[in-house]
Amino acid sequence: MADIIPFTEFNPSLVQLSKLKTLDNGGKTVYVSYNGAPLVLQTPEMVAPYGMSKWDNDGKGPAKYTLDLSFKGMDTRDHLKTFNKALQDFDSLLVNGGLSNSDEWFKKKYTSKDVVEALYTCVLRRSKDDKYPPTFKMTVPCDPSTGDFRCKVFDKNTKEQLDLTKVNLKGARVTAIVQCTGIWIAGGKFGSTWKIVQLRVEQTAKITEYAFKEIEGDKVEDVDESDDDDDDDAEEIIKDAPVNIDNKDDDSDIIESSDDEIDSKSKVVKKTASKKK
Hints:
By secondary structure, this protein is of the alpha+beta class.
């Protein structure tokens, strides 16, 4: 196996790019090496916020799986800053490679770095408006014929090997050993692919079995049906009760009297007044 490069020791000047290769399926790739050997990096411990993602490929081929690691907490962790800088340097190196090899890679001569950057898919994925921390996307290798995963997963605490299909990766703390398998070029765009070789996982606690504890005296008492009848009677009384709303400031609630009612009331007032005289 190739030497594993800790992220703290990554030197972008030792990265080498091969000549363009055309694959049997017509795809184009450029192999990436590090000081003459495969480029294999060990990441710092990071959080996998989404867990493992699956892409069904619209049924046109075997499903593909990816795992994102988040740079959450980079403001307070120097190791995350160091790894972030390493990936930024790698992105810059590939953009420069695309610019200097544009004739071969894209069949076009580009002289503007901005144009090539627009064609490039960064290793360091950023959200729109930088609302969320950047992430690093890795592919989970699978056997296309059986669907079995081709990477090893170990428990951080026990160092025992785990079955990836039974590991809860969502929110887990993960350290990865990843290999850059090369640069892909398709549709005038390009980027790099990083596959997982090994994972070291500290899983989040997840309760999957019956875990309730019996607490003495903690129960709902039986309800007397007669109490329910009393409640029903109370509801009927409340429904039939008149509702008086005294809102002197709201003219819309005043019921205007008819002219006849006004005349009759005025006559009563006059008679009362005459008697007093």
